[in-house]
Amino acid sequence: MKIIATGSSVPQLELTNDMLSQMMDTSDEWIRTRTGIQSRRILSTESLTDLAIAAAKKCLDQSSLQGSDIDYILCHNIVSDIVTPSMASIINKEIGSCCPTVDLNSACTGFIYALDIADSLLKTGKARRILIVCAEEMSHFIDWDKRETCVLFGDAAGAVIVEDGGDETYFHLSTKYTDALNCNSKYASSPFRKREMPYHYLEMRGRDVFKLAILNSSNDIKKVLEKANIKPNDVDYYLLHQANIRILEAIRKELDLPEKSVPHNIEKRGNTSSASIPVLLDELNRSHTFKKGDLLAFSAFGAGFTSGACLIRWQLD
Ligand code: ACO
C-alpha cells in the first residue's frame, strides 16, 4: 500500500494554556511540563464535518484527483456531528464521489485500524483508491470543569488517500479491555429501556493510561519491526499518537531512538485522538520532511484499550 496524498484541517480558535488558566485553576507551567502542550485548536464556529470535508478536499487537491477517482471512503470518529448518515457518506456527497462509505470507531488508534482495513480492501481488489479521514471533536465530550482532562485535548481532521502498490505494509493491532478511559454517554430512552443518566463526559485514570500507552506502543512497534525483520533505527520517522510529550519521550527511550526520528506537534495541537497521526503526517509532508523511500512507523493507543502500529514505505517525491 502507498500513501499518495495527505490533508488536514484544524479549527480557527486557538486556545492557549494562558487562556485556560483564566478559565480554571491551572497554569501554562503545569500543562507544559506535564504534557508538552502549549495550545490547541477548538471548534467554535465551524462543525466537525466542515473540518473533515476540508481535510478530504486538501488531499484531492494535492493528488490532482477528482472525487470520482475515489472508490471507497473510510471515516473515523469517536463521535460524529449526527447519528446518521455517517460522516463518510456526507464526505462522499461533498467531494462528488459515489462509492462505498463507512464510519469506524476504535478510539485514538483509529487511523491505524483504518489503514489496516484499507490495506485489506486494496489487496483483495475491492478498491483501488481509498480516502481515509479521521475527524475528532474531543472538546465536545470532555468535562470543561475537570482540569485533569480538559487541558489535554484539541479538535482536528486529518486525511490520506492510499492506493495499492509499493512495498508490503506491516501491521500489529490489539485490544485488551480496561475501564481506564471511558465515555459512557447516553442514548434516548425507549419504551423498553429507560436511560436516566445525564450526559457522561470522558473519564480517565491518567496515570493508568500513561503506563498502558508506553507499554502497548513500545510492544506494538517491536512486534511490527519483528514482522518486517528490521531494527528500530532502520525506521526514518516514528509518528506516534500525540497524547503527551512524556509518553513520546518514554517510548523513544525504550526503543533507543534519536530525537529527530520522533517528530511531534503536540505543542500546538494537543491530543486530537485519531486525527493526531494523519495531521502530523500532513504537516511533515507539506514541510517536505520526508524523502521517497523513507520508512515510517505509526503507533497509536486509546480507549478500549486499543493499540496498534504500522510500518509503511513513503513513496511520494
Ligand atoms: N492544572 C494544574 N494542576 C493540575 C491539573 C491542571 N490541569 N490537573 C491535575 N492537576 C493537579 C492534580 O490535582 C494533582 O494535585 P495534588 O497533588 O494536589 O493532588 C497534581 O496536579 C498531580 O496530578 P496527577 O494526576 O498525579 O499528575 P500526573 O503527573 O499523573 O499528570 C496527566 C496527569 C498529565 C493527565 C498524566 O497522567 C497523563 O498524561 N496521562 C496520560 C493521559 C493521556 O495521554 N490520555 C489520553 C491517551 S488515549 C487518548 O488519546 C484518548
What is the strand and helix layout of this fold?
Elements: E1 2-9, E2 13-16, H1 17-23, H2 28-35, E3 39-42, H3 48-63, E4 72-76, H4 87-95, E5 101-104, H5 110-123, E6 129-137, H6 147-150, E7 155-163, E8 170-175, E9 181-182, E10 203-204, H7 206-228, E11 237-240, H8 245-254, H9 266-269, H10 276-286, E12 295-302, E13 306-313
Parallel strand pairs: 4-5, 4-6, 11-12
Antiparallel strand pairs: 1-7, 2-3, 6-7, 8-13, 9-10, 12-13
The structure holds acetyl coenzyme *A.
Residues 26, 30-31, 34-35, 107-108, 147-148, 151-152, 181, 204, 206-207, 209-210, 213, 243-244, 247, 271, 273, 301-303 line the site of acetyl coenzyme *A.
Structure description:
The protein folds into two domains: 162 residues, Peroxisomal Thiolase, Chain A, domain 1 (3-Layer(aba) Sandwich), CATH 3.40.47; 144 residues, Thiolase/Chalcone synthase (Peroxisomal Thiolase, Chain A, domain 1). The protein has 317 residues and is an alpha/beta fold. The model has no long low-confidence stretch (mean pLDDT 95). The strands form four sheets. A five-stranded mixed β-sheet has the order 1-7-6-4-5, sandwiched between helices. A four-stranded mixed β-sheet has the order 8-13-12-11, with helices on both faces. The longest helix has 23 residues. Bound molecules: acetyl coenzyme *A (ACO).
